[in-house]
Amino acid sequence: MNVPFNKAGQSLEADAPHSLVAHFGAAQPLKMDAGVLLSPLTIAYQTYGTLNAQKSNAILICHALTGDQHVANTHPVTGKPGWWEIMVGPGRPVDTDRYFVISSNVVGGCMGTTGPSSLNPATGRAYGLDLPVVTIKDMVRAQAMLIDHLGIDTLCCVVGGSMGGMQVLQWAASYPERVFAAMPIATAARHSSQNIAFHEVGRQAIMADPDWCKGRYLDEARNPTKGLAVARMAAHITYMSDEALQRKFGRKLQDRLAPTFSFDADFQIENYLRHQGSAFVDRFDANSYLYVTRACDYFDLAADYEGSLALAFKGSKTRFCVVSFNSDWLYPTAASRAIVHALNAGGASVSFVDIETERGHDAFLLDVPDFIATTRGFLDAAARARGLPPGATGAGRERLA
Amino acid sequence: MSKPAPKRVGEILSRDGRLDLLLVADMVEPHSRVLDVGCGDGSLLRLLSEERGVDARGIELSQKGVNDCVSKGLSVIQGDADTDLADYPDDAFDYVILTQTLQATRHPRKVLEHMLRIGRHAIVSFPNFGHWRIRYQIAARGRMPITGNLSFAWYETPNIHFCTIRDFVGLVDEIGARIERGVAIDRSGKPLQLNLPWWVWNLFGEQGVFRLTRMKP
Q1: What is the pTM of this model?
Q2: What is the DSSP letter of A179?
Q3: What's B7-130+161-214's CATH class?
Q4: Which residues pair with A88 in a beta bridge?
């Protein structure tokens, strides 16, 4: 297990990631919504499988808020399996024997793509808050630069959940001719007031930590881990449903028979959240958390289309499959239905499945058989329509996932 | 209308032998835009898109049905005829189809009105509650009818709004729609002759299949 920060507090993965990297120099700046040209730009990415001769079998996976490019390989910092190995791999729905799978760390992230913990060549220290505020559209523009760099014209499919789903929607709106199929999962076309509110709690927790040092903690060899952990704890609650929490933890006590009349973690749920918080700070950068949450908050796809989401997808030839989970209260089914209505009104080809599960927003990362079957079916059908040969894996391996 | 069905049609529809679907398919112009409400496992959608070049979309309530459809590459939305048709824009489709579902909706009249708003034509198939076999069961046995077509006991049936062919025609009049085509099929699935009077259809038709359009286009 590697430590993400060296003794000077510099982030290792940010500047020397265990990933492929694409560098874009002064001639290829990233045009950011903030009105700034970001240069140089580094994109850290992973690929799985082989690009076919026609370059028609590429699937781009967009990661969620605190995800990264390590979709289906051991994570270089935590040593844990990739975050979507249940979905991506040989014989899995995103079959790496069949598709060329690409996943890149978002701009503003902390796993090798340019972000607040990356070295700012203009100052010789980390960007910190000198990095312009990043939007979902900026993330997608950078991904498009990477796809160009890989010599791919059209993506067979763009897939992603949560913030990844926002990127999928942005891809379909910004580059309709480059997206053959799109699968936005557990997401919304804009952040609701409640969504923004939860993110603000997280950001305030980070900024209230004295170790945050107004964003310059890397220079001071400090790290606002307490604030970041609290941010994660608050956010983590929103990823789970009330039923699931009740079933898993209820009011069970942690290694004790009675309450201690103190502020220890008496309850299992407290202990669980504390664990989630402390594990998170080992792999994630506090300023990155500010940037990626802000990107979600600013996301309002319809705003660029006279306030009409239908206009964003008008005349789109992309095949869509929108997926929601009925116990997801962070990006509820209604938010997905709004996307579906807009796609319908825009005349796009759309399927929509509301998966029944009690596992809440995080269901998209978990073994939910109906969801996995839907993904497999949709991708198979898209691949057939795109003229890809059938997967070599055959029916016998279907049970794998 | 009596165009011979292509070979694959039998294969696609063989699973549940839904003969009404063939009649419905014959009422659809090739290469048109179709919404099938309550599309089940997508048999009709497949038939229409693969054999008739139709841009076919579906709505289906059951998760299994939606998953089946999506895995066949069909565009299907999980939803409910009673609540979700309201969200579709006017004139979005050439045909909106509802097979064997009208009697299970909460508001058949509203559903029918939405169908005619969303599509230029509506195609509806439904079990005829005026069929002699049903009349006989009520009249002679004094029991709610259970037939091969309507196999549920009264206390567990999803079919809450039965109508006869005459009732349906009455509703069509009431909402200001016009019948473009109508077929009644007998027990063996054969269409009854067109020139027979209404009461014969209402007595011997096990199912009615109608294509409607708005009175004023």
Answers
A1: 0.89
A2: B
A3: alpha beta
A4: A94
